[in-house]
From TrEMBL:
Gene3D superfamilies: ATP-grasp fold, B domain (3.30.470.20). The keyword Nucleotide-binding applies. It comes from the Bacteria. It comes from Paenibacillus qinlingensis. This is ATP-grasp domain-containing protein. Coiled coil: none annotated. Residues 119-354 form the ATP-grasp domain. The keyword Nucleotide-binding applies. Keywords: ATP-binding, Nucleotide-binding. The lineage of its organism: Bacteria, Bacillati, Bacillota, Bacilli, Bacillales.
Length: 368
């Protein structure tokens, strides 16, 4: 039987190295097992309907370049770290609209918040969020919630995020990470000093200001949960797994790229909730919410393949959505030793792609 072809749309970091190459190698190996040839390329590799792809040769243990036609189905793994990337990918999708795409692009953090706020079922899970307008408005928001996060609306991986907490009537603590993910030294200041410091950070309407959820554990480190929900080989949503992440000391984020540690969901929940019944009810609520959110986002944006949800659980056990990512990593499951979950997380996009191709063939056969 002829192999199916799956194109993986990727992006170059610094013009030569591909982001996520280790994941693509794993995807290629799983693809060979399922009869799918994984072909990796970037928009820059496309000339007309010809494309210069990378395929992994398991026998030789290396990547091979070859010129071929565009694959019929595309798995988009490009992260929009810059506006230029976004425009380049939009241009590719517009030019090649007849290809099958496993997913559609989602909105930035501010537009996403507005979209999600329209749903009465999802709204209770959202921290209060506003678009940055001025330092005086930010200070009003801070005095209302006592703890806030300031995030670039297009940021990923914890870049450029600030955490500001009011720790006494006129004392504030500013912490964060810069655009390179490096930890910013904690800064304690009164209101006037804080305003001066914020002026130097060049905040703009490209940032959102979000109500903070208390995520600090007893040892002072922050934590959250990464839930992965994916389409399976029948084209239906299924929760693949959920794991905990704990940030390094003095970090305000838990991202693994920023030095975070992965732990099992149960272990992390047990740090705050000794009751097994309470832990089970929180896990159940997380899963139910994940299905609700995935269905709603498909209604709003079109067909999707997978979603990574960053979830917080407050001291009372309430579930909050911090962020949703249509191009999630699955590394967290490998880090906690859940190899079967990790393998499932790699395999599911391939199984979903095969299902999408079979659906297209059925339609084509009926139209013949």
């Amino acid at each position: 039987m002829a192999q199916e072809r799956l194109g993986v749309l990727a992006i170059y970091l610094n013009n030569s190295r591909l982001e996520e190459l280790a994941y693509f190698k794993r995807l290629s190996k799983e693809g060979q097992r399922l009869g799918v040839q994984v072909e990796v390329f970037t928009p820059a590799d496309v000339q007309g309907n010809a494309v210069r792809t990378l395929t992994f040769d398991s026998n030789r243990g290396r990547w091979l370049r070859k010129y071929t036609t565009l694959p019929p189905i595309i798995y988009d793994r490009c992260r929009y770290k810059a506006a230029a990337n976004y425009h380049m990918l939009q241009a590719f999708r517009n030019r090649h609209a007849k290809l099958i795409y496993l997913s559609k692009p989602l909105a930035n953090k501010w537009s996403m918040h507005q979209t999600l706020s329209q749903s009465t079922a999802i709204r209770p899970y959202l921290p209060a969020t506003v678009r940055y307008s001025s330092i005086s408005e930010l200070m009003k928001f801070l005095k209302k919630y006592k703890l806030i996060y300031v995030k670039p609306k297009n940021g990923t991986g914890g870049r450029g995020i600030l955490r500001i907490e009011q720790i006494s009537p006129d004392l504030y603590l500013l912490q964060g990470r810069n655009q390179y993910r490096s930890i910013i030294a904690p800064f304690r200041a009164n209101e006037r000093q804080l305003a001066i410091k914020l002026h130097t950070l060049n905040l703009s309407p490209d940032y959102v200001v979000q109500q903070g959820i208390h995520l600090t554990l007893n040892d002072g480190r922050v934590h959250d949960y990464r839930l992965l929900i994916q389409k399976n080989g029948q084209g239906e949503w299924e929760v693949t797994g959920c794991a905990g992440r704990i940030g390094p000391h003095r970090s305000i984020t838990s991202n693994l790229h920023g030095g975070g540690t992965a732990v099992t969901q149960d272990r992390l929940l047990s740090y705050r909730f000794p009751s097994p019944e309470k832990r089970e009810s929180i896990k159940e609520e997380m899963n139910e919410f994940a299905y609700k959110l995935a269905d709603y986002l498909e209604v709003k944006f079109g067909k999707l393949c997978e979603l990574g949800m960053d979830i917080a659980v407050d001291l009372k056990g309430n579930v909050w959505l911090l962020e949703v990512n249509p191009k999630p990593s699955r590394e967290v499951f490998r880090r906690i030793g859940q190899h079967a979950t990790y393998q499932k997380a790699v395999t599911r996009p391939l199984e979903y792609a095969l299902w999408m191709l079979s659906q297209k063939k059925s339609v084509d056969d009926r139209n013949d």
